[in-house]
Here is the input.
Amino acid sequence: MSSANLRVVANCGGADDFMSGNAEAILPQGGSALTISAEWTFDRYRQGDTPLPEPNLAWNTYGVGVESIGRDGRPEPAEIPSPATDQLLVRVDAVGLCFSDVKLIRLGGDHPKLYGRDLSVDPIRLGHEATVTVIQVGEDLKSTYTKGDRLAIQPDIYVDGRSTAYGYTIGGGLIQYHLIGPEVLAADDGAYVIPVDDGLGYAAAALSEPWACVEAAYTQRRRLWPLDGGTVWIVGHTEDMRPYDFGRSLRGAGRVVLTNLSTSVSSLASSAVGPQTELSVADGVTPSGYRALADEVTGGRGFDDIIVLDPASSEQVTGAARCIAFRGTLNLVGERPLDGPSSIDFGRLHYDYTAYVGTRGPDVAAAYGEQRNRCDLRPGGVAVFVGAGGPMGQMHVQRAIEKLDGPSIVVGVDPDTERLQVLEDSLSALAERAGRELVLLNPAACDTGLEEIVARLTGGAGADDVVVTVPVASVMADAARLMGSDGMLVFFAGVANGTMGPLDMSQVYLGNAQYTGTSGSSIEDQALVLDKAVGGTLSPDLNLAAVGGIEAGRDGMQAVLEGRFAGKVVIFPQVTGVPLLGLDELAAQYPDIGQALGERGQWTPAAERILIETYAATAGQ
Here is the structure.
C-alpha cells in the first residue's frame, strides 16, 4: 500500500507565454535555452496561416481488426476540397485515442452506432476526441466562424433523435484536414463544437472529450420524478395494510396499473391519481409474469415508473427491474430486507439510465428528487476507484483529488502494480497539495482482502462512493460490496445491455444506496471541462502517456487495444515522422522536447509547441 498527500503540478509558463512565441518564457524551470526557427513560427500555425500539406493523410477503417485500418499499414492520401457554403475546412491539431475506438474495431459494421454499415465499401474514420482549427469558412458561416478559430468537437451528435456520432458514422479526426458541415454544425442541439481558449494546449483541448465523459459521470442523468403523462405500475401484496401516502407521485400520470394490492392500499392509490389518469387493475400476477404484463400494457416499451410496496423477495425485485422503460424509475418502499441480492441489468444502468430509488415509507414520494438522490462524490468522504490504473480510471482519481469539495481519502484499485506506480508518480504531488490522502492498492499484493482494507479506512462504515471503470460484471458486483450505507456506486465502464449481476437492492430503501451509470457526455459537460482547464482547476493532459505523428495512428490504436500505456495516447495529425512514443521514450529520442517536459516528465504546452513547430508537415514552408 502506498499513500501520499499532494500539490498541483503547474504548467511551464502561462497562457500568454505559450502563445507569445517567447521560447525562453516557456522553458521548464532549470531548462536550457532552445533554438526556435523564426521562419516557421508557432503563431502562424495557431492562426491557421500555414500551407496545406501534399498529400493530406488519413486513416480509414475498412472492417474488423486493427489490420483493417489504413492500406498496408499506412495512412492514405485524401483530397482537400474547398468548403461548400455551409461547411468549414478544418485542420485536426490533436486527437486522443479511446477504448471506445477499440470496441468499434472489434465489432466493425456490427457496432450499434454504425447501423450495419458495410465498411469494406463505405469505410469509417476513427478519432472522436479531436480539436481542430478553422482554415476556410463557407459563405453562409462567415458571421459565426473565422479562420484561426479553435474548436473542440463534441462527438455525441444527434440528428432527429438518432446518434450520428463524430468518429463513428461521421468521419473522425485521424486525418490532417477535412470538412465539417450541417452534420456537425446544425444538428439537434445546434453546433456540436465548442470554442477553445487560446491559452489551452492542443492535447488538453482534445482530451476535454474523455474528461467530459468523466464529468458527466457526476452529473445527474437519471430522471428522478415520475414522468408526466407516463405509465405507472404499482405492485404489492394483499397482506400489506400500511397507510401509504402517495403524495404527488401519481398526480401527473397518464395511466396507473395496480397489481396485487390490498383493498385499503388500492383505495389510497386510486384517490391519489389525477382526474386525467386512466386507472386499471391487473391482479394475480407473479414475478414470472411481470414481463408479460409490461409487454401487454406498454407494447414492450416498459413502465415509465414502477413502485414496489413492501418488497417481498429478491426475485420480485429482479422481475420488476426487468420491466423498467428507458430512463425509467423503480421506487422500492419497504422496511424489511430482501432474502438476497437481486439480478440487475448492469448494461441498462449504464446505457439506459434506469433509476433505482427508495424509502422506508409510508411517504412514497419521499424517494424521489435530487435532494435524496445525489450524483457527485461525497465531500470529505472516502471514494474508491476500481480500475484506477487505466486512462479513464486515472482521470476519475485526478478529478476526485482536484475537486474543491472532494473526498478526503481517495483509494485507487488496480491489478497492475506498474500502472499504480504511474498513477502515484503523476498524482501524488497533486494529492499532497490538495490535502487528500491517496491510497493505491493492488489487491493481489495485499495481505488482506479489499473489503477489509476499505473497512479499516472507513472505520467499518464502508466507502461513500465506489466508481468502477472496468467493464466486467463480476468486478462490478464485487465493487458494490465495498460501499457503505448511503453510498453511491457508479458504473462508468459499459457492458452490453442484458449483462446481469447481483446487487443488494434492500440497501436502496433501507440505506438510500445509489446505483448509477452514465454513457457519453454533452456539449455542456465538455464546455465545463474546458472552462475548468482554462481556470486552472483541472489539468486535462496530466495523464497523457504517449504521443505520435499522423503515421502512428494505427500503432496508437494497437497500443490502446493492448493497454501498452497507462495513460492516454494522443496523435498530432500535423506532425510527421514521429513514431508513437511514451513520454519517457520521447524525451530520450527527442532531447529538445524532453527538456520541455514537466519536472515529473509530464506533458506541457512547451513540449507541445516544440513538437509542432519542429516536426509539423509544413514546417519551414
In short: The radius of gyration is 26 Å.
